[in-house]
Amino acid sequence: MSSGAVRWPTKEVSGTMKKNLITRRSYLVRRESRIHIFTKPGSKSVADVPSKYHDILHTVSFQYEVYKHVLQIIQEHTELETEDVVERLFLHMKYLDDVRQEFLGETRNQKDASSSPTLEYHMWLEYTQGAYDAVARKQLSEEYKVTYGKVKSGKVNVLEPVLRESYVRRCGNAKYDKCGANVAMGKDPIPRPEVARRWAADIINELKAIQGAKDADTMEKDRDADDKVVDSVGGLPGHEVGMVGGEDRNRPGTEQEEEEQQQEIDRRRVGQGMGKEK
């Protein structure tokens, strides 16, 4: 068990871990106050869950399945450049799985299994930020004066009903409702959620638009290159290869800088659906 809050992954998820994450899932049985966590096919862990954590663990279980289904849909589109989106989805799944596993460790290793600082800190991030990275944690600290240390020491309380109720209302009004408050989950995997279909469709459309823009830009650059060659062959004064009107349009670094800027813009556009929702 770690000595602090579960961190947002800072490096790519390994190939082996990706395979494991796809097979994992969980569901909560409220009447038994137990969570069932499948670590691999045919193998699962079961832990008692205080009633105060029922809602958040159900949400974690549902969100995990949403990310998984979105991932599977996007991976079917091999004609698109999906690597960045796929990696980001795996990061979300890795983080949520780490939260589940840490919760299991806390409840098993504490004499008083009724408290999970890890889960409560995650609740603060989920309920107030809708994101889990370093930026979200900084905003949580600045806006609500909440840190993992304060959660662990019991100085802040995330279990006030108003926080959960406000969160559920925001989920209902959000473009993608990943709360799962009204979704039943059990021993069998849930059917593909509608929110996963809609979210994946929007991501795919965005990727297609980006790909189309890149293809158009490539065609334009090819036409420019052809024009330069024609001018050079024609022997026009001052129009050598790589020169147009006497101005060097291919100075070292220019195209690379533009490509890096475009890649950053593309990542931000595609990632809009995976960030903070309010």
TrEMBL record:
Region spans: Disordered: 214-278
Domain of life (superkingdom): Eukaryota
Biased composition (Basic and acidic residues): 214-230, 264-278
Protein name: Uncharacterized protein
Species whose genome carries this gene: Hydnomerulius pinastri MD-312
Lineage, opening ranks: Eukaryota, Fungi, Dikarya, Basidiomycota, Agaricomycotina
